[in-house]
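Quick one, tokens below:
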């Protein structure tokens, strides 16, 4: 028979062992493919919004500057791996977002936008899950300890700034502005 190769595939073997489960898995495959062809964001695997726009160059970029002890500036843009840079910067970005949104978790806005009919759930869960006021108070001390553990340098005081820089075609960089958003102690 010409379709004998199907018996050697995952779905073929699954069909032999559990027909009901094979229909569920096959249905999921077909539904995923249909959703992707219709450009619906149905699964976390192929989000069209991530790949559908061309990235345009912008006139200014935001860079995070970390000063410890008043003089030493931690340079994690040139001397560290991408993973280390991510784990050093992402808590700062989250903290900055919390400050801008009055200590309310930014994911609440996303959930309310995606599922507006569940407002009654958000009201009940707000203080337990989305109110981050106690965490923002403890963050500077925690981040100083975290920075000490990650970089190996003693952190007595912190000054973290968001620096706006311009990059020119001649590959020159100029600082446009700097705004301090965290000081400790």
């Amino acid at each position: 028979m010409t379709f004998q190769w199907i018996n050697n595939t995952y779905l073929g073997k699954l069909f032999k062992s559990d027909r009901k489960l094979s229909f569920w898995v096959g249905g999921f495959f077909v539904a995923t493919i249909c959703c992707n062809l219709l450009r619906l964001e149905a699964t976390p695997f192929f989000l069209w919004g991530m790949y559908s726009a061309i990235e345009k160059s912008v006139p200014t970029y935001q860079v995070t500057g970390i000063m410890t002890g008043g003089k030493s500036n931690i340079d994690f843009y040139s001397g560290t791996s991408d993973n280390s840079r991510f784990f050093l910067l992402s808590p700062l970005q989250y903290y900055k977002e919390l400050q801008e949104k009055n200590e309310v978790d930014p994911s609440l806005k996303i959930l309310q936008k995606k599922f507006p009919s569940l407002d009654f759930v958000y009201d009940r869960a707000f203080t337990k899950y989305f109110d981050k006021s106690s965490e923002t108070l403890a963050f500077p001390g925690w981040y100083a300890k975290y920075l000490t553990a990650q970089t190996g340098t003693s952190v007595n005081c912190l000054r973290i700034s968001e620096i706006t820089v311009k990059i020119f075609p001649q590959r020159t960089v100029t600082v446009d502005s700097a705004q301090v958003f965290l000081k400790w102690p």
